[in-house]
Amino acid sequence: MTDMDKPENKPTQSPAIEVTGLNKWFDDFHVLKDVSIAVEEKEIIVICGPSGSGKSTFIRCINHLEKYQEGKISIFGQSLEDGKSAANIIRNNVGMLFQNFNLFPHLNILKNCTLGPIWLRNMPELTAIDQSMALLEKVGIAHLADKFPGQISGGQQQRVAIARSLAMNPKIMLLDEPTSALDPEMILEVMEVMIDMAKSGMTMMCVTHEMQFAQEVADRVIFMSEGEIVEMGSPDQVLKNPKWDRTSQFLEHILSHKT
């Protein structure tokens, strides 16, 4: 038997995220239309598109925060179709960053970050504190550990939310327009943390209109419109040489508002 005749013994690694034929309706409104994508481990995907195109609903379905009527979603080969195990699959693999921070206002910054690891991961309290302080240092706000969310800026709150998500040691991070609720001067400080996180090797899917982030770190950019993936490719292809008029019109609109 020659080398060419020998069977392949390479292990087949499942994608970090695999979505097949995803369809979702809100009553009669068909918000996601047969959406499919495979995201490899450590891949960075940026999702853009006009308001109402289904971007946020799409990643909320991946995080099992929205129910969908048709299709399949798997995380590292584990199907989310089994409702009993879906929560554990998500908890063990996926972190989520929202538009509006979702911090606990009655807990200080440190306790916001230690709560999940202690109660959901059974991490010893001192270990959780050490880990959380290291993450707050990483995002540049360790000096605010004793403050409460209402005492710090929106940009600082979003950096706390990033540290809190990282404290759960996710393999995948989903980000839903994480800078959209921020004042313009605060966007850059959060973007810098997001770029560092992307370059650390984490798998990411990020809904954003920040084309600088897409250009700098994305492996692929997805353009969605009316519930469908209209265009998908490298940042240079989608952002600089889009194939579809809808993509070009959207990018012209976004760039005109940035200048």
Number of helices: 9
Mean pLDDT across all amino acids: 91
SSE string, helices as H and strands as E: EEEHEEHEHHHEHEHEEHH
Counting helices, strands and paired strands, the structural category is: alpha/beta
The CATH topology corresponds to Rossmann fold
End-to-end separation in angstroms reads 65 Å
Looking at CATH, the homologous superfamily is P-loop containing nucleotide triphosphate hydrolases
By CATH, the architecture is named 3-Layer(aba) Sandwich
Radius of gyration computed on alpha carbons: 19 Å
What fraction of residues sit in β-strands? Answer: 15-25%
Largest sheet: 6 strands, mixed
Strand tally = 10
The neighbouring-strand order within the major sheet is 6-7-8-3-9-10
Tell me, what's the shape?
globular
What is the CATH C level class, in words? Alpha Beta
Which stretches are poorly predicted, pLDDT < 50 over at least 5 residues? 1-11
Overall tally of structural domains:
1
The portion of residues assigned to helices is 25-40%
Description:
Helix 3 packs parallel to helix 5 (154-166). Mean pLDDT is 91; it is low at 1-11. The termini are far apart. The strands form 2 sheets. The protein has a 6-stranded mixed β-sheet with strand order 6-7-8-3-9-10, sandwiched between helices. The chain has a 4-stranded antiparallel β-sheet with strand order 2-1-4-5, with helices on one face. By secondary structure, it is an alpha/beta fold. It contains 9 helices and 10 strands.
Layout: helices, strands, pairs:
Blueprint: E1 17-26, E2 29-39, E3 44-48, H1 55-62, E4 70-75, E5 78-79, H2 83-93, E6 94-97, H3 109-120, H4 125-138, H5 154-166, E7 172-176, H6 184-199, E8 203-207, H7 211-217, E9 220-225, E10 228-233, H8 235-240, H9 245-258
Parallel strand pairs: 3-8, 3-9, 6-7, 7-8
Antiparallel strand pairs: 1-2, 1-4, 4-5, 9-10
Helix pairs in contact: 3-4, 3-5, 4-5, 5-6
